[in-house]
Write a structure and sequence with these properties.
3 copies of one chain form a homotrimer.
Chain A lengths: L14 E6 L7 H12 L4 E6 L7 H12 L7 E5 L10 E5 L4 E5 L5 H6 L4 E4 L15 H14 L23 E3 L2 E9 L5 E6 H8 L7 E5 L2 E3 L2 E2 L10 E5 L4 E6 L4 H5 L6 E6 L1
Helix pairs in contact in A: 1-4
Amino acid sequence: MARSPDSLESVPPPIITLLTDFGAADVFVGSMKGVILGINPHAQIIDLTHDIPAHNIRAGAYLLHSASSHFPPGTIHVAVVDPGVGSERRPLLVTTRSYHFLAPDNGLLSYILASEPKAEIRELTAKQYFLGTVGSTFHGRDLFAPAAAWLSLDEPTDAFGPKIDNPVRFEVHQPQLEEGRLVGEVLHIDRFGNLITNISQTLLREALGTVEGAKVQVRIKNADVQVLRHFYADAPPRTLAALINSDNLLELFCNQGRADELVKAEIGARVEVRVS
Amino acid sequence: MARSPDSLESVPPPIITLLTDFGAADVFVGSMKGVILGINPHAQIIDLTHDIPAHNIRAGAYLLHSASSHFPPGTIHVAVVDPGVGSERRPLLVTTRSYHFLAPDNGLLSYILASEPKAEIRELTAKQYFLGTVGSTFHGRDLFAPAAAWLSLDEPTDAFGPKIDNPVRFEVHQPQLEEGRLVGEVLHIDRFGNLITNISQTLLREALGTVEGAKVQVRIKNADVQVLRHFYADAPPRTLAALINSDNLLELFCNQGRADELVKAEIGARVEVRVS
Amino acid sequence: MARSPDSLESVPPPIITLLTDFGAADVFVGSMKGVILGINPHAQIIDLTHDIPAHNIRAGAYLLHSASSHFPPGTIHVAVVDPGVGSERRPLLVTTRSYHFLAPDNGLLSYILASEPKAEIRELTAKQYFLGTVGSTFHGRDLFAPAAAWLSLDEPTDAFGPKIDNPVRFEVHQPQLEEGRLVGEVLHIDRFGNLITNISQTLLREALGTVEGAKVQVRIKNADVQVLRHFYADAPPRTLAALINSDNLLELFCNQGRADELVKAEIGARVEVRVS
């Protein structure tokens, strides 16, 4: 290797990611970045997405979980989908084996907490890490952004507030085995119209004993898929098809089309898998 | 504190922000970033927004003013909403107490200039800071981006062109007191449908003698709001409500809905405030 | 000059640009950035655009060519519009005089290869530069992003895979001279509704002997333009007009309107130029 990624000559900039429902047409996100850089001008700020549907905590929770795990250890993830901003809902700092997460206590970290049962959970209370004047409508800028920036300067987590053990979590639906069928649901519809389900390859193998493509049958709405494909172009055009995707989840798709339109499926739609 | 934000070990990268009406589907913005990094590869480039409605100078002016103030001193703000590109309109470099602004001379800096009466205003004329071949249709890439990059390398402002004292400014409407009512207007509608007005908390207090929520009444279109809330979730769902927002401006909103659709308001809509 | 852009004190961060059809509402792009920063935390990642119409290789090819040339030498450009992901289509590393390009072998680099006949073309085969588990549906994250990150650490290109000489290229249509008329087509419609053609200023001069605005006449659909303008505001409002744009290409536009709506033109529409 020509150069080590951990070269001695300089400390890598700390990474702060942002995921919000603020959209791109306003300057909410730009303002958060200004606040971060005012505290730590060396921070490397990365957008996960700002197009979470407005106030849709479940959508944000899924995409945060999906994207955050691809970042290097030490990354600070800030997530703000926050219809209850300014109310009694608490701001959280959650530290897992690899990352820090800053987010409102409204379920946005449900998937993170489900997969990280030993995470350290703190209520963000230390006002010295907030902007001087924290308003009641924009905690992304006034509270989460500055706290993340101070954290990126290696402030210890115990300085940010006390540990708590009762964060708000929505129920993460697990697929169920019903009469030999594994029954799950659509978690997310991506920009190509692909339907991502909560049925993992691991679960398929455990519940049904195989993930051999030729034997797996999938049913959604009134449509049936008789085989798992290996990649998108592997399926006949404009028909419903299925595969295990890059996050190891069962995904329904339509080569040269949109699966969501083809079967008129929405988030939460029931998905059944059985073995022939 | 574990590490100083102004650590000795390295100079923080200069910050250049971009605000345009170029959208995200083209590569205008990407080209500007390439030009900047070709001159100063250490620049930290931050997007404010690129979704200003096409050619809408007033919308750009408002959002530039709103976002720019959250950045650390020394930040260079580039704003390009420029229907008159290539014509006689001048390119400007405006230096305030904290920032540099580069923008076409078409009113885009009206709010900045209104709040910074002692700003130094220069016409950008020094061709050594432009791309070799400045076209007539894309000054964002050929003129403003390279000038900003050179400025980030600490070139002195007087090298960029002569001072001028007659920049183009549109009239910034100030709320007026009419028969005991403070009359203002909607400045901006954000992605959540919230209606941000030009009536500040300071002005409310001065003109009406109070900002006590229970006494303040707001009228827009044919709808009345009888009280100021403290945060969004504080209001009953799906009704028109009002609060002082994170920029200290009166804002109309609808908890679990969109205020703009509820009252069919547009930018410029009249807003009246009185005290009961 | 106050400070050299190549200051001795620190090595500039390597630049990696991203152009995809992944959109902004998902976290595909965020995941790619996480992978890159996990390998080279010093990389400066720049978005060209992620709003290429889904699976539209030609649109991506044009915008990649348009934007990439504005970056400094050494920039690594990653482009992913990849309907055939997981199939037999090869992943490529193309090295030109100034840049590296990583992209699927599906025509996305057609314009780059057309203008860089001596480019070094390699198939990306060296699995040590990919993520440990390369899936079949997301090579942007599992293959192109990590390969780009390793390349930014100065790994030599010959370590990435063998040279090939038969990359997939779609035919780049060149304008033709027909009965004294130069006949080209619309390459791209930008966010302002401007119609960018494949007719360059150089070609106009060579084929017709002049680019003097008063003598050049343009025909598209049933509309005629009698003169070339110098900039947008130079044309009467709400009429079809033409100019040579910032990429030296003939462009049809409508001052204070949209040319695409005015003449109902689409990508590929025929454009004729003659001299009066």
